[in-house]
Amino acid sequence: MRVLIVEDEPYLAEAIRDGLRLEAIAADLAADGGAALESLAVNEYDAVVLDRDIPVVHGDEVARRIVEQQLPVRILMLTAADSLNAKVTGFELGADDYVTKPFEMRELVMRLRALARRPAEGAPPVLEFAGLRLDPFRREVYRDDRYVALTRKQFSVLHLLIQARGGVVSAETLLERAWDENADPFTNAVRITISSLRKRLGDPAVVQTVAGVGYRLADPDRDPDRDDASGAAR
C-alpha cells in the first residue's frame, strides 16, 4: 500500500507515518489540504488518512474533490470530531471509514488493510498467477500450495508484480509504489529485494529480469521465451 497522511500536527503525522512504515505501508505526508491535493494530482495512493480540520483547503473540501474527480483512492477520516452528526457528515462527503482521535495504531493499520482489501470492479480479492497465490488481507503467499514466508517489503514488491499479470514493472515504479517519496532514486533496494524474493520463491525462478526495462512474473511451464532469471537481479 501507499498512503497519504494529511495532518497538520507534525508530531502526530510523523508518528502515524513511522507506524505505517513498520507495517510495510509506504506513507507520505501533507500538512494542509492544498499540499494534499497537489500530492494526489501527481502520485497514486491506495488510501488517504485525512484530518478534517486542516489549513489552506479544509479536509471536507479535499474529500469532495477526491469524489468529484473520481480518484481511485480510499478516504479514511481521522479526526477529533466524534459526534454522530460529524461521522454522518464525513460519510456523506465520501469517507470510506472514520476513526476518531485518540486511536490505537494497530486499529488504524487494520482499517487501512481492510480498505485495501476491497477490490476494484472485476478484480479478485485473492490474486493468482504463474502458480502463485497472494492474499493481500491475510498477507499470505503460496507457490503451488506451498506457503512462502516473505518479509513485508518482499510481499509489497510481489504484490505489484502479480497485479501486473506478466507485464513488465519498472524498478522506478516498484520504488515509487512499495517505498515512498523519500526513497533514494539511486538506491539498490529494488535490486536487492528482487534478488531475495527470487530465493524465497525457489526454483524454477518465476521473477524475470527484462534487461534495461524492469521485472515481470513469468510462468516457467508456459513461457518458452523467458530468459534465465535464476541468478541475482541485475
TrEMBL record:
Keywords: DNA-binding, Phosphoprotein. Residues 2-116 form the Response regulatory domain. Residues 124-219 form the OmpR/PhoB-type domain. The modification 4-aspartylphosphate is found at residue 51. PROSITE patterns: OMPR_PHOB (PS51755), RESPONSE_REGULATORY (PS50110). One of its GO terms (molecular function) is DNA binding. SUPFAM superfamilies: CheY-like. Residues 124-219 bind DNA. SMART domains: REC, Trans_reg_C. It comes from the Bacteria. This is DNA-binding response regulator. It comes from Pseudolysinimonas kribbensis.
